[in-house]
Amino acid sequence: MIDPMHSHCFTYGSLMCEDIMSAVCGTPCTRHQAATLVDHRRHPVIGQEYPGMVRTAGSSVAGVLYLDLPPAAWPRLDAFEGEEYTRERVEVTLPDGCSVTAWTYVFKPQYASRLAAGDWDFEHFLRHGKARFEAAYLGFATLGRNPDSIL
Questions:
Q1: What is the pTM for the complete model shown?
Q2: Mind listing the pLDDT tens digit for each residue in 104-122?
Q3: What is the pLDDT of residue 140?
Q4: What pLDDT does 113 receive?
Q5: How many helices (H) and strands (E) does the chain have?
Q6: 150 occurs within a structural domain
Q7: Following CA atoms 66, 69, 73, 79 in sequence, which dihedral angle do they give, to the nearest 10 degrees?
Q8: Is residue 145 part of a domain?
């Protein structure tokens, strides 16, 4: 049975990296598994290393589902994601075909002009963008104290 004080989070970008997710949440995030979200697509955000995800019929996004995050993680995640994203409940599919309800962060329609055409590439991020991303977001540790100090 799922603890009602904890929730799952579907991630599809930089937070798919356990070390980044743990830093953002302020707690080890070791319980996770692969998952897919249908009728969505992730795009590169222009000028950034991370993606934005939008609803797109017929597309799907492969990501990582973190299980049973504590309540204290959510304000930190909200602050990290910032103004361009909204947290929404979605149904993701696990490799065994089961569906699970989770929270995820969807790019707000009013910022759609910041999304580039094409798909965001996680393997490219790991090889070429992760170090730059981490250097740009050294404020992980401050997320719980002062959201304005993230960047």
A1: 0.88
A2: 999 999 999 999 999 999 9
A3: 58
A4: 96
A5: 4, 5
A6: no
A7: 40
A8: no
Element (H, E) at 124: helix 122-124
What is the distance, to the nearest Å, from the Cα of residue 131 to the centroid of all Cα atoms in its chain? 17
- 74 phi and psi, to 5 degrees? -65, -45
Residue 136, in any domain of the structure: yes
The whole domain housing 79 covers 7-140
- Number of independent structural domains in the chain: 1
93: phi then psi, degrees, rounded to nearest 5: -110, 130
Q: What are phi and psi of 81, to 5 degrees?
A: -70, -35
Using CA atoms, how far residue 62 sits from 37, 75, 82, 147, in Å, is: 7, 24, 22, 29
Indicate which CATH number applies to the domain containing 134. 3.10.490.10
pLDDT in tens, 84-103: 999 999 999 999 999 999 99
Cα–Cα dist 16/133, whole Å = 13
Residue 1 lies in a domain: no
Residue 4 in this model has a pLDDT that exceeds 80: no
